[in-house]
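Re: that chain you flagged

S.,

Sorry for the slow reply, it's been a week of failed gels. I finally had a moment to sit down with the sequence you sent. For the record, here it is as I used it:
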Amino acid sequence: MLTRMHITMVKKRLANGETCRKCAQADDLLKSRGLSDRIDEIKWADEADPSSAGMQLGAQHGVSVAPFFVVRDVDGTTTVYESVLKLVNERLTQRAPAGAPAEVSSADIEMAARDLAGSHPSEILRWGLERWGASLGISFSGAEDVVLVHMASELGLPFAVFSLDTGRLHPETYRFIDAVRKRYGVEITLMAPDVRELEPFVKRKGLFSFYDDGHEECCGIRKVQPLRRMLGTLNAWATGQRRDQSPATRSAIAVVERDRTFSGARGVLVKLNPLAAWSSAQTWQYIRERGVPYNSLHERGFVSIGCEPCTRAVLPGEHERAGRWWWEEATKRECGLHVAKTPAPGSGSR
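Prediction finished late last night. Pasting the structure tokens below so you have them in one place:
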């Protein structure tokens, strides 16, 4: 049972008389969850009036942003929440039975993206794991992904890890996968291509057709379809994407978003990109400071590592993605895992 408490919501009124946008968004989230009636009192922090009730309450509790919530429990304990999502998750929502996936709305996702935008990656990951546990899968293949595995292991919450075994990976990558499995004591689910699609493709086009007509069809069979099968069993997934990895295609990714390409076990699939705001330097600083394992190919000039025929070491001054599908235009150097739409294999470019 939820203990009855008194909740005061403080909203900001701008100098022009309008409600601040973030406060309106918090209202919308509470309405979407059917929780508006749990707010017992609303106080306004008037931008033009420092003596307004909301401004005074903010000064009393050392809060300078709105909205915020003051929760007074029956024993007189007072707790202040500056995040409506944290209030909802900790105080207004009944805990789901163990193993039951948590539902999430579009308003939840949008609010999480805003609230967590400036958070440390481990806190973004915590938000997801507290909601979904092992029904959130960490997509693992490279340096960024193993950082997420390391963070998840330190959080002490249930999580799952999977990797796409295309059948064309470097031997060093397979050894890396095994090293991570042993280091963290985690099972890494390997997703392989469907032989019913792969065998006819190889018979028809050979093993290196991508050098002539692009990598999309091969990636569709070896990577996109196995990923689709995996994600269909999950409610959320976490990736190691960074905005600076590919300015042409990843510069605007959010730390939390609805996946518009793939569906999860219950339809809506949530996608976490905890390292979105990090740079390569920050990632490697984290790896070195904590002794996190990494692919030995990085010591030979490989930065972004994929399948063996489609990956090369980069030259000094080249962007890290220059070593992927280097024979194609830079704007086409995605395999279909992180794009808005993913046609079926063989249906053309993505």
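What I noticed first: The chain is about 35% helix and 15% strand.

Talk soon,
D.
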